[in-house]
Amino acid sequence: MTTLIIGSERASTFAQGVRDADPSFNIRTWPDVPDPKAIRYALAWGPPPGELAKLPNLQLIVSVGAGVDHLLKDPSLPGVPVVRFVDEDLTGRMVSYVAANVLYHHRRMIELREKQAARTWEYLAEPAAHELTVGIMGLGVLGQACAKALGPLGYKLAGWTRGPKEVANVKCFAGSAGLDAFLGETDILVVLLPLTPDTRGIITRKLLSKLHRPAILPGPVLINAGRGGLQSEDGIIASLDAGELYAASLDVFSTEPLPASHAVWAHKRILLTPHIAAESDPRAIARYLVAQVGRSKRGEPLPNLVDRARGY
Ligand code: NDP
Ligand code: OXD
């Protein structure tokens, strides 16, 4: 029973991690697949479309990421269970990315960097944390962990989900009926949605115009660490240029790597990171793969199973 690692640039690092975690594991890294019939399990990140369909005895697909849009976009994806990566290491990384960016914009660092570059000593008024509402789109594993970390910093919290939800200390809104009310209370918008047919392109200039304008910050803030396909980058730039949005942190883009010619690179009010908000650590992913394959072999229920109809 062999496991194939496919799609990721880091396939050989993951393979080494798996061998360290369980030396008895049979591992192949794509495209080295001499016997496709021997492959029972796949660890995948953006596999070339059609490649997983060539494995007739595949029983389980483990996503290298928490998001699975990179798998579900393949129309020939075999109908076997797909599990996504849910792990405290990944969650901790996302929490620190979101907390760092919320604090960065709350404390107007993007402007203070500009003042430093101009050698300008100038006081900028700042709200207290309790005067700001951080609204999180997507209160799943990552969104809830971020809410839990931001609460003790003093922020008011809101969240938006597909179905109704109750989360301690978070004012919850759901569905299209709850979206405008959620936006109307949100000063700092954190996007942690999966990319699905329902969420694609949701972050537009029009949506951003519905955010609450904070009393002391120059305007509302966007932090997108979900997926680039959720956002219109042109809409974000237009929103920033019109002063409707104060600043943005973008970790994900509709085209990755982001082309060097893209206007986002040079925008003074955008803090750009190259899809690093929460990387899948090779040791963590190896442990996770070994545990999920073990459950599959023993016929046990698989946690973090993807619901293909929902798309996440
Ligand atoms: P979860 O599946 O645990 O949570 C998804 C959340 O999004 C749920 O609260 C869900 O609502 C909500 N949601 C889904 N569809 C809709 C919709 N149509 N309308 C409103 N809410 C919706 O995912 P995770 O928290 O684990 O991860 C979230 C995303 O973060 C991943 O899909 C991935 O794209 C991204 N990510 C990015 C990383 C990076 O490095 N930039 C790293 C890791 C993940 P409900 O609760 O009702 O189901
Ligand atoms: C993920 C990612 O989905 O890293 O985990 O983007």
Brief write-up:
The protein contains nine helices and twelve strands. By secondary structure, the chain is α/β, with parallel strands linked by helices.
Spatial ordering of strands, largest sheet = 8-7-6-9-10-11-12
Strand pairing plus helix content: what structural class?
Answer: alpha/beta
The bound ligands are: NADPH dihydro-nicotinamide-adenine-dinucleotide phosphate, oxalic acid
Net shape: elongated
- Average pLDDT confidence is 98
Low-confidence stretches: none
The count of β-strands is 12
Could you estimate the helical fraction of the residues in percent?
25-40%
Show the helix and strand layout:
Blueprint: E1 2-6, H1 11-21, E2 26-29, E3 39-44, E4 60-63, H2 69-72, E5 82-83, H3 88-106, H4 109-117, E6 133-137, H5 141-150, E7 156-161, E8 171-174, H6 175-185, E9 188-191, H7 205-208, E10 221-224, H8 233-241, E11 247-250, E12 270-272, H9 282-298
Parallel strand pairs: 1-2, 1-3, 3-4, 4-5, 6-7, 6-9, 7-8, 9-10, 10-11, 11-12
Bound molecules: NADPH dihydro-nicotinamide-adenine-dinucleotide phosphate and oxalic acid.
